[in-house]
Amino acid sequence: MGDYYGLAVLVGVSLLLTTGQCDVSCSGLDGRPGEKGPPGRDGYPGAKGEKGEPVVMVDGPVDPGVLLRLKGEMGSRGSPGAMGPKGYRGALGAAGYPGVAGRPGPDGRNIGHGGQHSPQQARSAFSVIRTDNSYPRVGQVVTFQSTEVNTPGDFTAATGYFTCRVPGVYYFTFHSVAKVSVCLYIASDALADKLGFCDYNRNIEEVLSGGVVLQLRARQKVWLESFRDQQRPSEMGDINEKRIIFNGFLLFANTE
Description:
Layout: H1 2-20, H2 64-69, E1 125-130, E2 146-151, E3 155-156, E4 161-163, E5 168-178, E6 182-188, E7 195-199, E8 206-216, E9 221-226, H3 233-236, E10 243-253
Antiparallel strand pairs: 1-2, 1-10, 3-4, 4-9, 5-8, 5-10, 6-7, 6-9
């Protein structure tokens, strides 16, 4: 048995020696290229490069590719494009805070006939009293001796005329107190006919009243005027105490 094992070892050694001495003619064939593997993963971003040097213009031809990479000067502004469609309406925002009060404006001024007047100008009122005991002269404008109100001064007591300054609608009224018959007209440029009022009494103190609403233009006048109807001659010379009160005021000014 031992001889058999030794023989086997010798045979193996002999084979090894024979293989090591093989020449080129006994070499094996090249293997086939392996199949292409799957793409690899992207690499990590590289570090940021250093800032380049400023460009320097040189004499001579310049590479067009370099010019394309250079930043040029800003060009002129192009013409506006066509307006786009109107957008949707946004939601209503919250109310803003009240603004600061502005400075007072300048005082208004009268711009004449047909013009509008400020609230300070669109006012007119008067109340005057005749305290003269003589009978008002027939056919004459009644004058007055006492002025209670005359704002802003459209009535002239010495002449008895009210002169319209603010065009509009006015109310005029009078009251007379006497113990003799008194006849008075309300007269005006705005009336086609005078409005007459009479009171006939004998030795009884009574009140005569009359009134009218008039639409006046600028510079038209209104006044009271005495006239004779059925008075006795003795009444025309009466010098007992008498009172005539004449009032007028603007109801509203014209807005046109």
